[in-house]
Amino acid sequence: MLFxxxxxxxxxxxxxxxxxxxxxxxxxxxxxxxQRAGKWPHIWRVVGEYANFSIFDVESNDExxxxxxxxPLFSYMEIQVTPLAVHPSDIKAEGS
Amino acid sequence: MLFxxxxxxxxxxxxxxxxxxxxxxxxxxxxxxxQRAGKWPHIWRVVGEYANFSIFDVESNDExxxxxxxxPLFSYMEIQVTPLAVHPSDIKAEGS
Amino acid sequence: MLFxxxxxxxxxxxxxxxxxxxxxxxxxxxxxxxQRAGKWPHIWRVVGEYANFSIFDVESNDExxxxxxxxPLFSYMEIQVTPLAVHPSDIKAEGS
Amino acid sequence: MLFxxxxxxxxxxxxxxxxxxxxxxxxxxxxxxxQRAGKWPHIWRVVGEYANFSIFDVESNDExxxxxxxxPLFSYMEIQVTPLAVHPSDIKAEGS
Amino acid sequence: MLFxxxxxxxxxxxxxxxxxxxxxxxxxxxxxxxQRAGKWPHIWRVVGEYANFSIFDVESNDExxxxxxxxPLFSYMEIQVTPLAVHPSDIKAEGS
Amino acid sequence: MLFxxxxxxxxxxxxxxxxxxxxxxxxxxxxxxxQRAGKWPHIWRVVGEYANFSIFDVESNDExxxxxxxxPLFSYMEIQVTPLAVHPSDIKAEGS
Amino acid sequence: MLFxxxxxxxxxxxxxxxxxxxxxxxxxxxxxxxQRAGKWPHIWRVVGEYANFSIFDVESNDExxxxxxxxPLFSYMEIQVTPLAVHPSDIKAEGS
Amino acid sequence: MLFxxxxxxxxxxxxxxxxxxxxxxxxxxxxxxxQRAGKWPHIWRVVGEYANFSIFDVESNDExxxxxxxxPLFSYMEIQVTPLAVHPSDIKAEGS
Amino acid sequence: MLFxxxxxxxxxxxxxxxxxxxxxxxxxxxxxxxQRAGKWPHIWRVVGEYANFSIFDVESNDExxxxxxxxPLFSYMEIQVTPLAVHPSDIKAEGS
Amino acid sequence: MLFxxxxxxxxxxxxxxxxxxxxxxxxxxxxxxxQRAGKWPHIWRVVGEYANFSIFDVESNDExxxxxxxxPLFSYMEIQVTPLAVHPSDIKAEGS
Lengths: 96, 96, 96, 96, 96, 96, 96, 96, 96, 96
Fold this sequence. Notes:
Ten copies of one chain form a homodecamer.
Chain A: E1 2-9, H1 17-36, E2 42-46, E3 51-57, H2 61-69, E4 77-86
Antiparallel strand pairs in A: 1-3, 1-4, 2-3
Catalytic activity (chains A, B, C, D, E, F, G, H, I, J): (S)-muconolactone = (4,5-dihydro-5-oxofuran-2-yl)-acetate
GO molecular function (chains A, B, C, D, E, F, G, H, I, J): muconolactone delta-isomerase activity
InterPro entries (chains A, B, C, D, E, F, G, H, I, J): Dimeric_a/b-barrel, MLI_dom, Muconolactone_d_Isoase
C-alpha cells in the first residue's frame, strides 16, 4: 500500500554541529535500511529546500506511523502524508 | 532529469458526458504513450480526489512544458511542478 | 485500517430540484449500505455547513478510493483524506 | 453533544526530557480518565504527525472548554474545535 | 449555550431580482422570529461586506444546525461556527 | 460605535509563572473596568483556545486603539478588529 | 474617523458591454461626489489589478457601510475594511 | 525602473475558439511590440501553467499600469506586481 | 511616484526595554524627517495592531528600498510594498 | 535551462554582527562567481524585503540544487524554485 510523504526539516539554528552531523548520519542509516527492506522505495530531494518527497510501501497506517515517528529527525520535521491508489492510466497496473 | 507534478482535474459540471468520455480516453492514451516511452515513469491517484501525483523524466524544462501543455485535459487542470534532485540518502544513487 | 475523511458538498445553484432529490437519496442509500457493512463506522454533520466528518474502516487505500469515487455526489464534493493510526493513549487499544 | 477536535502538539526543542516524559504521562492518564468516563469516546493519531483527531461527548461548551484547557499539554497545543450534529444518513440515528 | 457564527452571503449575479427580494424578505422574518424567541440574541453587519457576525443561544449543536440549515439563504451562504464558553473575566458571569 | 475583536494570546513558554499570574491578573482588572464602563459590553472565550471574541462600544477608532494597545497582554496578543454596523434584520434597531 | 479600504472588482465575463460602461460611469460619479464632500479623501489604483486602495473619512461605522453598500459596483466587489488611528509618529498629528 | 510581474491567464471554458485565437494573437503582437521597445525585456513561461513571469522596464507606476491594463487578455488575467531594486551583489550594477 | 506600504513590527519579547525605547525613538525621528521632506506623505496606525499603512512618494524603486531598508526597525519588520497608479475616478487627477 | 528562484533571508536577531558581516560577504562573493560564470544571469532585490528574485541558467536540477544548497546563507533562507520554459511570445526565441 503506497503513501506519498513530504518531509520538511527545520533544524534549530543553535544546534551543536556535531550533534547535527550525528543525527543526520543516523537518519541516513535509518532511511537506507528501510529502502533496502522495500518499505521506502523512493526518496527525492526538493530542489533548493531542505525537504524531500518520498514514497512508502507499507502494510498499514500503523506501520507507516511507526516508521515516520521513529525517524531520528522526526521532532525537527513537518510531515504531510497522502494515501495513494492505483491510477487507471498506470500501465504497470494494467490487467491487475 | 526528474520532476514531481501534481495535477488536479476540474471538469465543468455541464460538460457533455460523451465529450467527457472522449477526452478522458484521449488523456489515458496520451499518458500511456509517455509512460511506455519512459518519460512519465510514475502516476498515482490521490485517494478521494480527482487528482494525481506523477514523476516525469525529461531532458529539459521545455520538454516538460510541451508534454504537460499537450495533455488533452490541460485546460481543465491545475498543475504544480517541483524539480527534483538526487537525495543523498538514496541507495539507488550510491556511487554515482 | 481507519481513515478520517472530510467531505464538503457544493451543489450547483441551478441543479434541477428533482435531480437533486434523486441524487441525495442515492447518496443516502449508498452511505447506509456501507455503514451496515462496517466500512463507514461514523458520519457526523459539521454544524452550519453542507459537510461531514466521516471515519472509514477499509482494507486498503485502493478500497477507500473505490468507495469515495463511487459516491453519487462525488463530482460535487471536495474530499480530504487523512490516514489514522492507533493513539498510544487510546484505552480501546490497550494490550493490543 | 458531540464535538470534533484536532490537537497539534508543539513541544519546545529544549524541553527537559524528564519533564517531557512526566507531562506526557500526565496527559495520558488525564485522557484515559475522560475516555473511561465516556467524555472522550474516540482518539486517533494522525499518521506522521504529533497530532490527534478526537471526538468529545459533553453536556455543554463550558464543560468542553474546562476539559481542554485542563489538558497537561494545553499550553503546548494548537486546538481546533468543530461542533457536530446528527447526520441524516447516520443509521445509528434512524428513528431517533 | 452560546455560539459565534459568521455568515457570508454569495448571491448569484443572475438571480432574478424579484426572487432575490422575496428570499431576503423571508430571511429577515425567519431571523426576527428567532431573535424574538431569544435564540439569536445578536446580529451585526460586517462593514463593507454582505456578511454578518451573530451570536446564537441554543440547547444543543443539533438545534443550532436545524436553525442554520433552515435559513432561506442557507444554500447561498458560507457559514463558520465557533462554540463559546464563559470568559473568566466576564463581569456578567461573576459568582456563577 | 461597535467593533468585533478577536484576541489570541501567545505567552512565551519560558515566562516566569509569577510574572504570568501578575500580568493575567492585571489584564482581568483592566478588562473588568472597561466592562463596567460600558466600553467592552461582551467577552467570550473561544472553546479550546487561549483566545476571545469581544465586542467594544467606543466613540472612535482612536479610542479603540488606546484601549487595545493598553491591554497588559497587548505585546503577547494577535488582535484582529472588524468594524460593525447595524444589521437591517436586527429587531433591536427597528424604528431607530 | 479614518478607514482604509481595499476594493477588488470582479465583473462577470459575460456582462453586456453597455451595461458595464453605464455601471462604471455611475460608480465614477458616485465616487467623485463623495470625494468632493470630503468623505473619500484618497483613491489609488493598485498597479496591474482592477482594484483600489481608498481612505474614507466618516462619522461612524454605519455611515461607512451605507456608503460602501451603495456603490454601484458593490455586488461585484470584494471589500476589506481596516479602521485607522493616528500614528504616534505622524507629524500632522503633533500637538493634537 | 524594473518590475517583476506574474500573470496567470484564466480563459472561460466556453470561450469561442476563434475568439480565443484572435485575442491570443493580439496579445502576442502587443507583447512583442513592447519587447522591441525595450519596455518588456523578459518573458518566461511557468512550466505546466498558463502563466508567465515577466520583467518590465518603465518610467513610472502609471506607465506600467497603462501597459498591463491594455493587455488584450487583461480581463482574463490575475496579475501580481512586485517592484525591484538593484541587488548589492549584482555584478552588472558594480560601480554604478 | 506613489507606493502603498504595510509594515508589521515584531519586536522580540526579550528585547531590553531601554534598547527598545532607543530604537523606537530613532524610528520616529527617521520617519518624521522623511515626512517633512515630502517622501512619506501619510502614515496611519492599524487599530489594535503594532502595524501601519503608509504612502511613500519617491523618484524610483531604488530610492524606496534605500528608505525602507534604512528604517531603524527594519530587521524587526515584515514589509509589503504595492505600487500605486492614478485612479481614473480621482478628482485630484482630473485634467492631468 | 532556466529557473526562477525567490530567496527570503531570515537571520536570527541574536546573530553576532561580525559573523553576520562575514557570512554576507561570503554570500556576495559566491553569488558573483556564479554570475561571472553565467550560471546566475539575474538577481534583483525585492523592494522593502530582505529577499531577491533570481534567474539561474544550469545544466540540470542537480546542478541547481548543488548551487543553492552551497549558498553561505542557505540555512537562513526560505527558497522557492520554479522551472521556466521559453514563452511563445518571446522575441528572443523567434526562429529557434
